[in-house]
Hints:
Radius of gyration: 24 Å
Order of helices and strands: HEEHHEEHEHEEHEHEEEHEHHEHEEHE
Distance between the termini: 38 Å
Structural class: alpha+beta
Number of helices: 12
CATH class of the largest domain: Alpha Beta
CATH topology of the largest domain: BirA Bifunctional Protein, domain 2
Helix content: 25-40%
Bound molecules: adenosine-5'-[phenylalaninyl-phosphate], magnesium ion
Number of strands: 16
Amino acid sequence: KILKSIHKSAENNKISILNSVYNRTDLTNVTASITRHVGRNLHLKNQHPINNIRKIIEKSLDSTTVKPFVKYNDFTPVVTIKQNFDDLGFPKDHPGRSKSDTYYIDDEHLLRTHTSAHEIECFQKMKELDNNGYLISADVYRRDEIDKSHYPVFHQMEGSKTWARENKKNFEEINEEIANMKKQLDQFENLTISDIDYTHEPNSVNCKQNHMNDEETSLLISHMKRSLELVVANLFIQRYSNKSVNGPNETPEIKMRWIEAYFPWTQPSFEIEVFFNGEWLEICGCGLVRELAYKNSGFTAESQMGWAFGIGLDRMAMLLYDIPDIRLLWSEDDRFLNQFKNNEGIFKFKPFSNHAVMSRDVSFWLNNPVHLNDFMELVREELGDMVESCSLVDEFVHKKTGRKSQCFRINYQHLDRNLTNEEVNDLHSGIELKLVKQFGAEIRN
Ligand code: FA5
Ligand code: MG
């Protein structure tokens, strides 16, 4: 019996992901409900909406340039802290690094939180390949809340283009490509883009980089913006030209706008937003690659100039196909998958069921604070995809004891069938037990 328990605890101290085994440390917070998603690769799954979006974006970007972008679509999701954060210039106290936001495997490894984790290695490969553009698509992992548009695993596409600064020929090429893209953009009727003036005081957060002059900076910003405007236009035009989406006489306007942003490895940085169903949605971050990133890739100081972007594929898929719940993207149900058979275009998804949502609240006293994302993780671990959403509905501190009380509402819903009252009650008791065990919570009745 003792031997058995020793064996079990030794196993519990290890995590295995993609044929590698890691020893748990104090930093480890990745769970089985997360590692189960590794290897699903929805961005490469034939006739899947995420794969369709990836291909449309790849095609759009390849149309802007003579040499097609090099595609990297199967990088492992296990990366080092150095790759995901350090090499990209993330400050040591950046919130993205915290255990509440990121899935750590051990003291050195984590599940990448973005495709930018591969930027440095791609810059390095670029030198050997004699190609100045690449695209990466991959699964990424973030600890987050639970609702219809958030899932701890999603997919991003990253891309970048780089030129040597001293080669005058490159400037001709860039100008030609910009002119070509403008021509393509002009062909879209019903496209409105609102740009922002880029006139920044030196040394402001989003000013140009020191080693690049004004001409280089504005040329590259223009090349980047036109490339990404084309990507967005090519995605939305497919949706809007589909008569199943709109009435036969309607051609809605594609409206996008540029705003300023911040990323540690780009400067200046921007985001593109699209006006959709009455609101502005942020869909893509980008910027001019910082000198620091090229230097970390082994380039001579000040020799390179380029841009990079990252776009979320799941959110684009949900928007463009009208997919109402992000969990559906992971469904193996024929009623989901069959709608995408033999049609790689964009069309309106027909929801096939709306199984009952059953709500249960849980209230408890806590002696120590628990991060919201830790609560979400416990719920995910217990319920998997049987939770539609989960939120904190009430919170207060007892005046005398100083103890905190929290109340969470869990909305139970199975994607494929109705849950019974009994099932939900059992699941909910399971959550209560775990709260007591993991967080030392005291359930209030
Ligand atoms: C990034 O991840 C940067 N790596 C993007 C980048 C690349 C900037 C290269 C500059 C240069 P951000 O966290 O904003 O940035 O995510 C980028 C996109 O991923 C978002 O615009 C959004 O479309 C998508 N995204 C982010 N979080 C989620 C989420 N929880 N669920 C679904 N999609 C998400
Ligand atoms: Mg963002």
